[in-house]
C-alpha cells in the first residue's frame, strides 16, 4: 500500500486533494525549492491522492477494503521473489528445463499493466487506445521497424483470446518469468526461433503454450502450492505491519460510517494475515485493551471471487470461524458484526447491509476486479492503490532535468480536472 496510507490526516480526507507544490494558498509558487521546503500545504509524493471526480466524504456511509496489497501490504521485492521462485520450481516439475532454476528475480524489470501477446510472445506497453508504446521480446526491446512488421500501425486490439493483461501486483513475478522463458527459448542453441514459437527437432513450443503453462503454474502456486503457507510461516519477512491501522479503522467508524472487508482470499489465510496486522498489545488507543481484528469491521466477506462478485456472484454462506468450514445453506438474514461470510453477490450484499451504490467507497489494488467492475456495474465510488506511483514521483522530484516541467504539467492537470479542496462537513476528528 502507498506509504502512510493509515495516516488519518492524509487518508480519511483522501479525495480532498491539496494543490501541487507549485501552488500556494494564494496562487502559484514560482520557487522550485517549494518541493523540498516542507511547507504545510505540500504533501510528500507517497501521501498524494489524485482524483478524476470530486467526492465529499460526508456522503459516504460505507468504507470497503480489499485485503491483499491494500490493508495487507506485502514487502517488495521479497514477496515477489518468493512467488517467482515457487513458480519456476513448479515449471520444472511440469517438465521444463532445469536451467530455469538459474533465473533470478529482477524487481527493476516488471511493471504492472503490461500486455502479453500470446501469439508472438511479446510484452507490450500500450496507451489507453491500444497504441503500442514499447515492445519487448524476452529482454530485447524491439526497434520501430520490427514493431511495425508485427503490428501494423503499432496498434493491437485488446482481444482476450490473444492478449492477457498483467494488471495486478501478484502478476509481477509472472511478468518477469514470461520474459525469462521467452528469452531463454528464443536464444538457446537447442531451439530454432520462429515468430510464434520455437522448435527442437520434431517438437514445436508455441509462445501461447508457454504462457498457458505459466498461468497454470501461477494458479497452482497460489491455490495448491506453498505460497500462502510460506507467507504465514514468515509474516515478519513478507508482510508490513502498521500500528496506525486499528486507529485508522476506528476513526472511520467513529465518524458514523460503517467499515467492511471484501476479499478474494479464503478465511483461513485472511484470519492469519489480519490477526498479524492487528497483533498489538493495545487497541486503537494506547489505553484501550487489545481486540480481535474482526471487531474493527462491521461486515466481513471472504472468498468474494471478484469481479464475479459484482455480476452474477455466488451463493452467500456463513463461515464457522472455529473450524473455517462453510455452513450448509444460503445466508439470507442480516449480516452480523464479527461474523464472517463467504461468497455472495453485490446485489445480495448491498441489500443486506442497506447500501446504495454511491453510499460506498471501495479501496483496492486491482484496477479491473476492484475498481472498474464495482464502478461501472454497481456505481460504487472507488479508490485505487498504486504503489508504483511513488517511484515515479521520486524519480521526477530528484531529476533536475525532469522535475520542473513535470511540476508545471501537474499544476495544469490539477486545474483541468478541477480538484476539489473543500474539506468534508462530516468526517472523523483528527488528533495528533
UniProtKB/TrEMBL annotation:
GO terms for molecular function: 5'-nucleotidase activity; metal ion binding. Gene3D superfamilies: HAD superfamily/HAD-like. It holds the Pfam family 5_nucleotid. The keyword tRNA processing does not apply. The active site is at residues 66, 68. Transmembrane segments: none annotated. One of its GO terms (biological process) is GMP metabolic process. Mg(2+) binds at residues 66, 365. Its cofactor is Mg(2+). Belongs to the 5'(3')-deoxyribonucleotidase family. This is Cytosolic purine 5'-nucleotidase. It comes from Lygus hesperus (Western plant bug).
